Amino acid sequence: MDAAPAPAPAPMLADVVAVLDGLYPPSTAEGWDAVGLVAGDPAAPVRKVLFAVDPVADVVDEAVEWGADLVVTHHPLFLRGVHSVAATTFKGTVVHRLLAAGCALHVAHTNADAAPRGVADALADLLGITGRRPLVAHDGDEDRGIGRVGRLAAPTTLGDFARHVAEVLPATAQGVRLAGDPDATVATVAVVGGSGDSLFDAVRAAAADVYVTADLRHHPASELRERALFEARRPGSDGPTTPATPYLVDVAHFASEWPWLSYAAKDLVERLPEGTVTTRVSTRGTDPWTARVASPGR
């Protein structure tokens, strides 16, 4: 009787990081960002990889319980320089607990935002946006850049579109907010995962009917909508005579970026020797908001 073939050797952490850096080149991250390997021995073997949005205590719990060798998160643990990773702080504790369990930590942030099949593409796919291009291209690269803009398969109303967004994204306490007439027609959509109100000018230049992003602040959102309403009026008219676009759909930051995790997990496995690495997408909600109280009568 022939002996069963020996399992393929596990790739080293350095091999896995090389694949991740190929998918999400660190050189494409924003200058202020902190991406790449945060903790771990490049020579250590990797069999289990957990993907999550945030490097927080709940994710560490999941990684330790599952026996992960590597956690890949979207958000950095350390965005600014530090002088100590002692376990006397909550961030230092994350590092100590992971390393004590033999688990490394790697970050793909704005480099994953910009990448093909990155954060923006995953969000656009989930919302049914086709024929898309980067909202802001990366150094002339037609496939890489911040955000995406494209068209829906068929025009719909802003209200129905916002309801669809709420149905397909992870449930959060915030839910989905919108700015604009719920009965207005929308066909062209721009998306940016995470905080996106710094890109309003690019959304306007793209002539998007509606913009889906997160963390919209009062003043930028108010000014964008006031400008849209002003420009939609013809001199002497009492109200808008053309669509007052772009409308806004504001979602939770965590929810807008979570869809990317399954893309990253699939793309990593496909680029490693078959059967060597198992991946898991964390389903632990790391959105910081836990409840919402609606205004009376709303």
TrEMBL record:
It comes from the Bacteria. Residues 279-298 are annotated as: Disordered. Keywords: Metal-binding. The keyword Metal-binding applies. InterPro entries: DUF34/NIF3 (IPR002678), DUF34/NIF3_sf (IPR036069). SUPFAM superfamilies: NIF3 (NGG1p interacting factor 3)-like. Belongs to the GTP cyclohydrolase I type 2/NIF3 family. Homohexamer. NCBIfam families: YbgI_SA1388 (TIGR00486). This is GTP cyclohydrolase 1 type 2 homolog. It comes from Isoptericola luteus. The lineage of its organism: Bacteria, Bacillati, Actinomycetota, Actinomycetes, Micrococcales.
